[in-house]
Write a sequence for this structure.
């Protein structure tokens, strides 16, 4: 039976990172290639870390490993000073209130036969919160994401895509978590709705001791929300640092390719980026003389 293993840390609890990923490697199947290869990073309390890369870069696999949804081949995942790499199902349930997630498609995780208030109250019920308190906290969570009173009685089909993502954020925040894993949380939304959801996530973080792991493929989205960024390519870290510095002076060729591929509203700038992206992709695939 798995137990929560303590990790020796500094006496100053405030100096302990909210999350540490140490030399993480993940392989699908016994003989398959590594989907994640020796990845390390930290997230501080109240910090947002952007995890960025193209499809197949391993970013979603890392998020799922942190949530306990895929097994780890080697390395360690440490949450608030505790090793959570290989917890039993019972031990993992003790983390459900502190470690939450927002996924790309909220509709698939909402029961169409039940009002959304049921989805928000479920984690509180598991945590043993009394019924009266559950009702209050569900209403408060929906209010915090800008949904009108009475929304808890409506069904998923009665909300727009952007509103359903707000429901998903409310469900993640209803337990007052310490860390939320946002896996492509805005990539399925139009640009206007993306901006609204990103502003909401930023506002909810302000003044709270809440951290985000923000997984995305769009550098512009990560630039808006994250203080630091980790760039992944084929399961390995190719660059990491403060977001402004990485955006201003990218060191890795792959980072420059991602930046050039990010859409922008200015058509002239978008055309320039498209041309730069094509040149960078061509230089990356050119044979070495």
């Amino acid at each position: 039976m798995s137990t929560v293993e303590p990790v020796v840390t500094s006496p100053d609890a405030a100096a302990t990172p909210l999350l540490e990923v140490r030399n993480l490697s993940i392989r699908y199947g016994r003989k398959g290639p590594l989907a994640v290869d020796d990845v390390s990073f930290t997230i501080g309390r109240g910090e947002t870390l952007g995890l960025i890369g193209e499809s197949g870069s391993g970013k979603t696999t890392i998020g799922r490993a942190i949530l306990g949804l895929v097994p780890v081949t080697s390395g360690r995942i440490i949450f608030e000073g505790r090793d959570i790499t290989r917890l039993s199902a019972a031990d993992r349930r003790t983390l459900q209130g502190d470690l939450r997630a927002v996924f790309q498609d909220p509709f698939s995780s909402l029961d169409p036969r039940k009002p959304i208030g049921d989805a928000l109250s479920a984690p509180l019920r598991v945590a043993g919160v009394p019924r009266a308190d559950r009702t209050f906290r569900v209403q408060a969570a929906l209010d915090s994401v800008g949904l009108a009173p009475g929304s808890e009685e409506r069904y998923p089909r009665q909300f727009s895509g952007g509103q359903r993502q707000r429901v998903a954020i409310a469900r993640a925040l209803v337990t007052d978590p310490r860390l939320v894993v946002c896996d492509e949380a805005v990539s399925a939304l139009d640009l206007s709705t993306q901006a609204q959801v990103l502003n909401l996530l930023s506002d909810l973080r302000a003044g709270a001791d809440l951290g985000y792991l923000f997984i995305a493929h769009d550098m512009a989205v990560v630039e808006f929300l994250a203080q630091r960024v980790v760039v992944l390519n084929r399961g390995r870290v190719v660059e990491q640092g403060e977001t402004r510095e990485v955006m201003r002076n990218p060191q890795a060729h792959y980072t420059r390719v991602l930046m050039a591929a990010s859409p922008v509203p200015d058509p002239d700038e978008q055309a320039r980026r498209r041309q730069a992206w094509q040149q960078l992709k061509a230089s990356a695939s050119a044979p070495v003389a």
